Amino acid sequence: MGSMKKYSIGIDLGGTKILTGLVDITCGKVVYHIKKKTKKEKGAENIVRKMLSSIQELFEETKVERDEIGSIGIAAAGQIDRENGIILSAPNLDCFDLHIREILESEFEIPVHLANDVEAATLGEMKFGAGKGVDDLVCVFVGTGVGSCIVKDGKILRGATGTAGEIGHIIVDLNGRPCACGAHGCLEAYASRSAIEKRIEGALKKGRFSVISEYLEEGKSITSSMIRKSIEREDELVTHYVDEAAEYLSGGLASVINLINPKLIILGGGLIEAVDYFYKKTIKEAKLKCLPVPATKIEFRKTALGDFSGVIGAAYLA
Question: Among 48, 59, 207, 269, which has the highest number of CB atoms less than 10 A from its own CB?
Answer without folding.
Answer: 269
